[in-house]
Design goal:
Length: 204
């Protein structure tokens, strides 16, 4: 009959009034869930949020690393507008480059993985300056690239929690400690550094 509907798996018919009642019940349930979530936030007294912060593109055209294993400066980041009274729960560094180049006739790659606090690692510190701490590790043979080639870049996201260093608003500096490719040279173009911060905000 007009105005009646069947729902799969149910023998009985539903008219439009029944359907409106069901929609109303669903809407009430949604509101209740929203209220429950709000209550959890209020009872804990904190909200947990995250923000990404990025440096300017490096003012040098390329970060060039060579087989001598030299330490390279990377662009700093300004962390700002984290609300006063917030607590940083976790922070990780990010290394972004637009292009990777290899000027050698032979294939190239990173030579050797990270030795903590020693080599082949991106480090961060506050600009006090504080002590350097490891932020992004590399593995042996990472960034393999054919000879005389340029290819698109990537974003490398660290897994190390650096919230003991990145603990709030401020300027943070980066270096690639003893960066070493197999052959001279590897070129990282248009480098940017990033920090992803998770923090809790006290109730207003």
């Amino acid at each position: 009959m007009p105005g009646e509907f069947y729902i799969e798996g149910k023998a009985e018919k539903l008219d439009l009034t029944d359907i409106k009642d069901l929609i109303s019940q669903i809407q009430t349930s949604i509101v209740q869930v929203q209220n429950d979530v709000s209550q959890v936030v209020l009872s804990s007294g904190k909200q947990q949020l995250s923000m990404d912060f990025w440096s300017e593109t490096f003012d040098e055209a390329e970060v060039e690393i060579d087989a001598a294993g030299e330490t390279k400066d990377l662009p700093p980041i300004t962390v700002e507008k984290i609300p006063s009274g917030s607590s940083v729960l976790r922070a990780v560094a990010m290394f972004k480059f637009r292009m990777l180049g290899n000027t050698n006739a032979g294939a190239n790659r990173l030579s050797g993985g990270t030795v903590p606090e020693t080599s082949q690692v991106i480090q961060v510190r506050d600009d006090t300056p504080g002590d350097w701490g490891d932020a992004i590790n590399f593995v042996d043979s990472q960034y393999g690239i054919d000879g005389e080639t340029r290819e698109g870049g990537d974003v490398c996201i660290g897994s190390i929690d650096v919230s003991n260093i990145v603990d709030g608003n401020g300027v943070y500096e980066f270096q690639w400690l003893m960066a070493r490719p197999l052959l001279n040279y590897m070129l990282f173009c248009d480098v940017q550094m990033g920090i992803r911060v998770w923090y809790s905000v006290p109730p207003s």
